[in-house]
Amino acid sequence: MRWEDLFADLEAQWDAEEAAELAAELADRSRREAAYLRMIDRMRPVVGHRTRCRVLGGQRAPETLHGTLAALGVDWFLLAEAGATEALVPMRSLLAVENLPVVSAQPGHEGPLAARLNLRYVLRGLVRDRSACTLRLVDGDGLHGTPVRVGADFLEVAEHSVGEFARRATIRSGWTLPLDAIAFVRRIP
Fold first, then answer.
1. CA 39, chain centre distance (Å)
2. DSSP conformation class of 181
3. Which 3 state secondary structure label does DSSP give 140?
4. Alpha-carbon Rg of the chain, whole angstroms?
5. Which segments of 105-167 does DSSP mark as H helices, in order?
6. Is 101 helix (H, G, I), strand (E, B) or coil?
7. CA-closest candidate to residue 44, choices 132, 103, 124
8. How far is CA 70 from CA 75, 81, 89, in A?
9. Beta bridge partners of 64
10. Is the pLDDT of residue 28 over 60?
11. How far is CA 129 from CA 44, 67, 147, 186, in A?
């Protein structure tokens, strides 16, 4: 009987050590896998859902944007806001996203097309559509106008009043902005 107790005790110790090793290995593997996650991988499961984001560009504090995450690129995201406006936000302006789910998308599985749709590409769409926009700069200032040209690291905007079109008679000024100076761009319907 004593031998059976001894063997049972040894087997229990062996099982406990194996379980502890497996738990440590799983925890280590989870930490390593999390190290490969990017912010867009964390945000991708939220596409199509309402969210709240804090971004650069507030006068005295970060600005909070509310809306449905409509699209996501490698260095930008698009929020569909109330009132049919859309806010295009460079990822470098993002400070925080509220209540992301625990799950994340697989890193690098956005596909080859989505990987090429960077901020410059989306801004060129605004130029092509001649969309009137309000641009918020990282220092909190704003500018209303129509984007007219996108370069490698800049955006040119024809400044005009809200409700007007970018015509020679209505353009007050032309601005060239480094892309890094843009906190977000709100397209006006």
1. 7
2. G
3. coil
4. 25
5. 112-116, 119-129
6. coil
7. 103
8. 14, 9, 12
9. 54
10. no
11. 26, 22, 9, 14
Residues 167 and 161 sit within 8 Å (Cβ to Cβ): no
Q: Are 75 and 117 in contact (CB under 8 A)?
A: no
Whether residue 182 contacts residue 135, with contact meaning beta carbons closer than 8 Å, is answered with: yes
d(CA 14, CA 19): 9
Comparing C-alpha atoms, which of 71, 74, 86, 79 is closest to residue 40? 74
Q: Which two tokens stand for residue 167?
A: 């015509």
> Do 92 and 187 form a contact (C-beta atoms < 8 A)?
no
Q: Which residue has the higher pLDDT, 174 or 20?
A: 174
CB-based contacts of 136: which residues, under 8 Å, 6+ apart? 57, 63, 142, 182, 183, 184, 185, 186
Q: What is the pTM of this model?
A: 0.77
**Counts of helices then strands in the chain (DSSP H, E):** 4, 10
Residue 161 has which token pair? 């009043």
Give dist(CA 21, CA 44) in Å, integer: 33
Question: Residue 85 and residue 118: Cα distance in Å, rounded?
Answer: 21
- What's 45's DSSP letter? G
- What are 136-146's pLDDT values in tens digits? 999 999 999 99
- Sequence-ordered list of residues with C-beta below 8 angstroms from that of 59, at least 6 positions apart, any chain: 140
The pLDDT of residue 161: 74
| C-beta of residue 117 within 8 angstroms of C-beta of residue 73 | yes
**8-state DSSP, 66:** E
